[in-house]
Amino acid sequence: MEGNKLYDLKLKGFDSIQEMFDRSFKRVNTFEDFRTELVEGKEKRAGTELIQENAKKQKVEDDKETTELKQCLEIICRILEIIAQLDD
Fold it and tell me: Who contacts 51 (Cβ-Cβ below 8 Å, separation ≥6)?
């Protein structure tokens, strides 16, 4: 009720006090905490960080697979060279 004291309210009529109460009650009921917006922002940031981290892990795994495939190809090439030498 906008910081009115009891003495101030005694001087006012019921209708004006009811109006002040309704305004205050509406303000309380429509209040939205600003911290929820901050939390939502942090969640979005955390989500993008997780996506980036997953992408990095996937790249590392892909690099490992690539090196393993290269090693396998080198081994196959060596085996084919040895077989070619034996056929000669």
Answer: none
- pTM value? 0.39
End-to-end alpha carbon distance in the chain? 104
3-class secondary structure for the chain?
CCCCCHHHHHCCCHHHHHHHHHHHHHHHHCCCCHHHHHHHHHHHHHHHHHHHHHHHHHHHHHHHHHHHHHHHHHHHHHHHHHHHHHHC
- Region 57-79: mean pLDDT is 87
For residues 18, 19, 24, 30, the Cα torsion angle rounded to the nearest 10 degrees is 120
Q: Is 2 left (phi over 0), alpha (psi -120 to 50) or beta?
A: left
- Residues 25-66: tens digit of each pLDDT: 888 888 776 666 666 666 667 777 778 888 888 888 888 888
